[in-house]
C-alpha cells in the first residue's frame, strides 16, 4: 500500500499471469508471421506493423472487458488483479506498431517524422480521407501516459481521484483507435469482415459496460426500508455470510456492511487505492480486504493496518430482532465505531452459493480460480487466433515486388535528367534484331529522388554522359527502377568499347553521337532520346510513388500508404499515375507539368486516392509520361464515398 514502493511486488500469481500473457503474445505473433509469409507477399516491416497493431487492439478489448466482467461475475477477479501488467504490456506491443509505422511511413524523409504525421496528408476537412495516423498518435500518447503513471507511486502522488480520472481517458483512446482503424487500413482492405469485427468489438465493449452499469443502477435504486429513526434496512442476520459483506445504497453512497466474528461493522464501499468495491471483498486476517488488489482496512475504524495510512468512512449499525440496520450518515474517515455484537444462534443459516474469495497476494487461491483462469486464458487465445485468421485470410493479395539489395547490380547506359532522372540502356534486341532501349527511372536512398544528383553529375560531365551505376533494383509488374546506393557516388563514368574512358570520362557529345553498348554484350547504340506524343487522354487512377510501389514497400499504395507516398514525392521521387487500360491491366505513367516541369511540391493533395486526370499522353522509350495542368486533376471523392458505403 502506501508505506514505500518497490518497482513490482512479484508473487506467484503475478508470475503465472505474466508467463501466460507472454506465451499468448508469442503464439499470436508467430502465427501471424507464419500465415502471412506462407500466403502473402507483405514485406517484413508490414507484417511487423500489422501483427503488433492488431494484437494491441485485441489486448485493449480484453483490458476494457475485465472491469465490467468482474462486476458482473466475481470469477473474473482473477483477471483483474494483474490488469496493470496487461495494460503496460499492451502499451509495449502498441509501441512496436507505432514506432515502426513512424519509421516506415514518415522516417528518413525531408521533414521531422512526427511533423510528417500531421503535414503529409492534410485532408483534415474530409471524413474519408482524414489523416488517420494522427488519431493513432493521440491514442498512443494517452496509452503512454497511462503506462508511465500505472505504478502505485503515481497513484499516491496524483491522488486516487486524479489518477482514476486520468485512466478513464482509456475510453477516449479506444474511440480514437476505432476511428484510426476505420479511416485507415479498412479503406484499403475493404473486406466486410473487417467492418464486422470492428463493429462486434465496439458492441461487445459497450454491451458489457451497459450490463455492469445496469446491475449497479438496479442496486442503487432498490427500495429502501427505513425504521422510525431513519435507519436503513440492511438484511436479516442469517441471510449474511460470515466474513463477507452486504452492500446497500444509502444517502447517495454505497456502504459495505460486514459480518465477522459475531460482529457487524460498516464502512464506505470505495477502496482508497483505485476505487475497488470493498463490499465484494472479504475479511482476511481480521481486515476487510479489497477484491481488486488486496488493500486492507480494519472493520471497526476503517483504517489500513500500520504502517499503511489509508482510511475510509465508517457507519453506525444496530441489530433488532435478527435484522441489521444502518445509520446512513457517514462518520469522518477512520472514526472508530464499536462493532454491533450478536450471538451464535441467529446466524445458523449461511448462504452456500457464495464463491470463494480470490486475492492475488495470498499464497494459495481456491482451486476453482485456477481452473477458471486456465479456461479463460485458453478462450482468450482461441478468440485471438480466430481473429488473427479472419484478419490474415481476408487481406488483399498484392502483386509481389522485389527490392534487390546486397550485391548491388551494376548498370551502364546514358544518364538523363529530363523528363525524369533515368538511365537509358540497351540489354536486348527485338525479334527483328533492333536494339530495345529500356529506361530505368532513378531514385535516391530513403524518401528522396535523384534529380539533384543526376543534374549535378551531368553539369560536370556533359549531357550525354555514359555512366555506370551501382544501385538496388526495384521491380514489380514488369517495371524496373534503380535506387542509387550512395547518392552521387553511385554514378561513375562508364566504359566505351569495353574500356574505361580517361578522365574527364564523360565528355559532352553532340546530340547525335551514339554511345556504344558493346561492353554489355549488345553491339548497338542508344538512339537519341525522343519523346513521342501519343494522344490526349482522360483517365481515372491513383498517384503512387514508384519507389514504394515497385519494391520498397508492400503494399505501397492506397490510403494507409498515402502519407508515405506524399513524403517520397515531396522528397523528389517522380509521381506516377497507376491506371487500368481497356483490358483491365495496370498501366503506369510519370506525371509532369504541361511544360515538363516537376510537380513534386504541388501534387500532394491528389496522391493515394481515386482521381481523374486529363493530359497529353506521350512515350519515352518503354515509359509513358503524361503532361498535365494541376487544375486538370479531379479528386473522385464522390465515387470513393459510394464505394465505401
Ligand atoms: C504513433 C502512433 C501510430 C501510427 C503512426 C500508426 C500508424 C498506422 C498505419 C500506417 C497503419 C496502416 C498500416 C498498414 O498498411 O498495414 C495502422 C494500422 C493500424 N493501427 Fe496504427 N498507428 C499508431 C498507433 C496505433 C495504436 C496505439 C494502436 C493500437 C493500440 C494501433 C492499431 C492499429 C491497427 C489495429 C491497425 C490495422 C492493422 C494494421 O494494418 O496494422 N495503431 N496504423
Ligand atoms: S482498488 Fe486496488 S486494492 Fe482496492
Summed over residues and divided by their number, the pLDDT gives a mean of: 86
Helix content: 25-40%
Radius of gyration: 35 Å
Q: Describe the sheet with the most strands.
A: 5 strands, antiparallel
Number of strands: 26
Q: Which residues form runs of ≥5 with pLDDT under 50? A: 496-523, 639-645
Q: How many discrete domains?
A: 4
Q: List bound small molecules.
A: protoporphyrin IX containing FE, FE2/S2 (inorganic) cluster
Structural class label:
alpha+beta
From the spread of the alpha carbons, the general shape counts as elongated
- Tell me the distance between the termini: 53 Å
Instruction: Classify the beta-strand content into a percent band.
Output: 15-25%
Number of helices: 16
Amino acid at each position: 500500500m502506501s508505506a514505500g514502493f518497490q518497482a513490482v511486488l512479484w508473487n506467484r500469481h503475478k508470475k503465472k499471469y505474466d508467463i501466460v500473457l507472454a506465451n499468448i503474445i508469442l503464439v499470436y505473433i508467430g502465427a501471424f508471421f507464419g500465415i502471412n509469409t506462407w500466403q502473402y507477399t507483405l514485406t517484413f516491416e508490414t507484417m511487423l506493423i500489422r501483427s503488433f497493431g492488431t494484437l494491441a487492439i485485441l489486448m485493449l478489448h480484453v483490458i476494457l472487458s475485465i472491469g465490467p466482467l468482474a462486476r458482473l461475475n466475481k470469477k473474473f477477479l482473477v483477471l483483474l488483479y494483474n490488469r496493470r501488467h496487461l495494460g503496460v504490456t499492451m502499451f509495449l506491443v502498441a509501441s512496436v506498431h507505432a514506432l515502426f509505422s513512424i519509421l516506415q511511413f514518415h522516417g528518413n524523409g525531408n521533414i521531422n517524422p512526427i511533423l510528417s504525421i500531421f503535414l503529409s496528408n492534410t485532408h483534415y476537412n474530409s471524413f474519408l480521407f482524414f489523416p488517420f495516423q494522427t488519431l493513432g498518435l493521440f491514442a498512443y500518447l494517452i496509452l503512454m501516459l497511462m503506462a508511465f503513471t500505472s505504478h502505485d507511486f503515481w497513484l499516491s502522488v496524483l491522488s486516487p481521484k486524479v489518477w482514476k480520472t486520468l485512466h478513464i481517458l482509456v475510453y477516449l483512446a479506444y474511440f480514437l483507435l476505432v476511428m484510426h482503424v476505420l479511416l485507415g487500413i479498412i479503406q484499403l482492405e475493404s473486406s466486410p469482415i473487417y467492418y464486422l469485427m470492428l463493429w462486434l468489438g465496439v458492441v461487445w465493449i459497450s454491451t458489457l459496460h451497459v450490463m455492469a452499469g445496469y446491475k449497479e443502477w438496479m442496486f442503487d435504486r432498490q427500495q429502501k426500508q427505513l425504521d422510525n429513526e431513519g435507519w436503513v434496512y440492511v438484511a436479516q442476520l442469517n441471510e449474511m455470510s460470515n466474513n463477507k459483506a452486504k452492500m446497500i445504497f444509502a444517502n447517495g453512497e454505497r456502504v459495505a456492511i460486514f459480518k465477522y466474528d459475531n460482529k457487524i461493522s460498516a464502512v464506505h464501499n470505495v477502496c482508497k487505492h483505485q476505487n475497488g468495491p470493498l463490499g465484494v471483498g472479504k475479511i482476511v486476517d481480521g481486515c476487510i480486504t479489497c477484491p481488486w488488489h488486496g488493500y486492507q482496512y480494519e472493520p471497526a475504524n476503517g483504517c489500513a493496518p500500520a504502517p499503511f495510512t489509508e482510511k475510509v468512512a465508517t457507519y453506525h449499525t444496530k441489530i433488532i430482532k435478527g435484522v441489521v440496520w444502518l445509520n446512513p450518515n457517514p462518520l469522518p474517515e477512520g472514526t472508530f465505531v464499536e462493532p454491533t455484537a450478536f450471538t451464535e444462534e441467529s446466524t445458523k443459516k449461511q448462504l452456500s452459493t457464495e464463491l470463494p474469495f480470490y486475492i492475488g497476494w495470498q499464497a494459495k487461491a481456491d482451486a476453482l480460480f485456477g481452473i477458471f483462469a486456465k479456461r479463460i486464458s485458453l478462450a482468450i487465445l482461441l478468440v485471438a487466433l480466430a481473429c488473427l485468421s479472419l484478419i490474415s485470410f481476408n487481406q488483399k493479395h498484392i502483386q509481389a515486388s522485389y527490392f534487390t539489395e546486397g550485391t548491388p547490380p551494376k548498370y551502364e547506359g546514358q544518364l538523363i535528367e529530363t523528363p525524369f532522372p533515368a538511365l537509358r540502356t540497351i540489354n536486348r534486341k527485338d525479334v527483328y534484331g533492333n536494339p530495345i532501349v529500356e529506361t530505368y527511372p532513378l531514385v535516391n536512398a530513403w524518401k528522396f529522388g535523384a534529380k539533384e544528383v543526376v543534374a549535378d553529375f551531368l553539369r560536370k560531365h556533359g549531357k550525354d554522359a555514359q555512366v555506370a551505376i551501382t544501385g538496388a533494383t526495384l521491380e514489380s509488374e514488369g517495371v524496373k527502377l534503380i535506387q542509387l546506393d550512395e547518392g552521387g557516388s553511385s554514378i561513375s563514368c562508364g566504359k566505351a568499347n569495353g574500356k574505361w574512358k580517361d578522365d574527364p570520362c564523360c565528355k559532352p557529345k553532340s546530340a547525335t553521337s551514339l554511345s556504344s553498348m558493346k561492353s554489355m554484350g549488345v553491339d548497338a547504340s542508344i538512339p537519341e532520346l525522343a519523346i513521342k506524343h501519343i494522344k490526349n487522354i482522360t483517365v481515372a487512377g491513383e498517384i503512387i510513388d514508384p519507389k514504394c510501389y515497385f519494391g520498397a514497400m508492400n503494399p505501397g499504395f492506397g490510403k494507409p500508404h498515402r502519407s508515405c507516398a506524399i513524403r517520397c514525392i515531396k522528397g523528389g521521387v517522380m509521381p506516377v499515375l497507376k491506371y487500368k487500360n481497356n483490358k483491365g491491366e495496370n498501366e503506369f505513367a510519370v506525371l509532369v507539368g504541361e511544360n515538363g516541369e516537376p510537380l513534386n511540391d504541388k501534387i500532394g493533395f491528389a496522391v493515394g486516392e481515386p482521381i481523374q486526370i486529363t493530359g497529353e499522353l506521350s512515350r519515352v522509350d518503354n515509359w509513358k509520361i503524361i503532361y498535365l495542368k494541376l487544375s486538370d486533376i479531379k479528386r473522385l471523392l464522390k465515387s470513393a464515398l459510394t464505394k465505401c458505403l
